[in-house]
Specification:
Blueprint: H1 9-12, E1 20-24, H2 31-41, E2 46-50, H3 69-81, E3 84-88, H4 92-100, E4 105-108, H5 110-113, H6 116-126, E5 132-136, H7 143-155, E6 161-165, H8 183-191, E7 197-199, H9 201-205, H10 211-220, E8 225-229, H11 247-256, H12 265-308, H13 315-331, H14 336-359
Parallel strand pairs: 1-2, 1-8, 2-3, 3-4, 4-5, 5-6, 6-7, 7-8
Helix pairs in contact: 2-3, 6-7, 12-14, 13-14
Bound molecules: phosphoenolpyruvate and manganese (II) ion (MN).
Manganese (II) ion binds near residues 239 and 240.
């Protein structure tokens, strides 16, 4: 697959002056719930209603979705509100049912994108469709797997395509349910600038308080749209209750988010600058995370040295690190002076951490 302008035809057809917004509940629960939420989203910037009909659960025993009955509820909601409809498909029989019920946008979930066999089965079932198909990133941080899924669909003659960034799972618990790893979608965007890129802040955050900032970052990075889990009574949602917001909150977001449009030349300049700054901010955050991780290891070393009564400063080891880093830095275009200053500062902070541990 190569980058082609036509990749975004389906998106351009919406003719929006703002990013595409897809919203709706994590799961369809009842007809009344689906229709109530759709009504509350009507007449806003939201163009597409989402609802999970078949829910992939990591552990069994949680709510697994209402099944094809829910597709009828979505049709009712569409007839009443004019919102287009979208849902997740995870196998060929889901595809057949979704097509039968004329669902407008189908997406492939993160747990499905990891499996080339299943993605191929879905691609075969969808062959030649003019429906839009969106591919969520795989649960693991692997760009090729993500692109591979898009390519399987493209090869099956499905040309209305896009991707959804929903974050990547990690064993270590962080403030995110799924780490954003922004570098991965940014790499994808660099290779396929015309492939529509949509942020799903809900599954990245896993909580409500950081959703807005995630949406703003995505807009600063020129994402094409947002998919936000929205429920009229989030606390009592049957799945993903902690991360869902009300339609009213989402409408507030859409009022407060800053959208950067590319119109005049100077706007384009501002837009590019904003885009680069957003990338710098992401990298700076990663730097801090990495430094904090390093200091935690220093604390462990401090404990170990304390237990064996070993001195903090081990000069040969320090010289060895420094020599190695200067060489590696040079290969990456970093000056010796900079690497030296940087690692002296890091080393000093490590010593301070170890001193603290040892004196405790
Ligand atoms: C969802 O969108 O409700 C969902 C299950 O998402 P993901 O595949 O990203 O986990
Ligand atoms: Mn969900």
């Amino acid at each position: 697959m190569e980058n082609k302008k036509e990749l975004r035809n389906w998106l351009d057809a919406f003719n929006l002056d703002h990013p595409l917004v897809i919203a709706g509940p994590c799961s369809a629960e009842t007809e009344e719930q689906v229709v109530t939420i759709a009504r509350q989203l009507k007449d806003s910037d939201v163009s597409v209603l989402r609802a999970g009909i078949w829910k992939p659960r990591t552990r069994p025993g949680n709510f697994e979705g209402v099944g094809s009955l829910g597709l009828k509820w979505m049709q009712t909601a569409k007839a009443e509100t004019g919102l287009l409809t979208s849902t997740e498909v995870a196998n060929p029989s889901h595809v057949a049912l979704a097509l039968e019920h004329d669902i407008d946008i189908l997406w492939i979930g993160a747990r499905t994108t990891v499996s080339p066999f299943i993605v191929q089965e879905i691609a075969d079932a969808l062959k030649g469709t003019d429906k839009t198909v969106l591919v969520k990133n795989p649960v693991n941080p692997d760009l090729s797997l993500w692109l591979g899924a898009v390519e399987r669909l493209y090869t099956a003659d499905i040309k209305n395509l896009g991707v959804i960034h929903r974050g990547f799972s990690a064993y270590e618990k962080t403030k995110y349910r799924n780490n954003p790893e922004w570098q991965i979608p940014i790499d994808l965007q660099n290779r396929f600038p015309d492939l529509p890129l949509i942020l799903d802040p809900s599954h990245i955050a896993g909580r409500r308080d950081i959703l807005f900032d995630l949406c703003q970052t995505a807009l600063d990075l020129n994402y094409d749209g947002l998919m936000v889990e929205t429920h009229h009574d989030p606390d009592n949602a049957w799945s993903d209750a902690e991360q869902q917001i009300t339609p009213e909150t989402l409408i507030g977001f859409m009022r407060d988010l800053k959208i950067r449009k590319e119109v005049s030349e100077s706007a384009e300049f501002k837009n590019s600058l904003q885009n680069l700054r957003a990338k710098i901010d992401i990298t700076d955050n990663q730097l801090l995370e990495t430094l904090a991780k390093r200091m935690k290891i220093a604390d462990e070393i401090g404990k170990l040295k304390k237990s064996q009564n070993v001195s903090i400063l081990q000069t040969p080891r320090w010289n060895e690190i420094l020599g190695k880093m200067i060489l590696q830095g040079e290969e990456k275009g970093l000056s010796e002076e900079f690497v030296l200053r940087l690692f002296k500062a890091i080393h000093q902070e490590s010593i301070n951490h170890q001193k603290k541990v040892i004196s405790e």
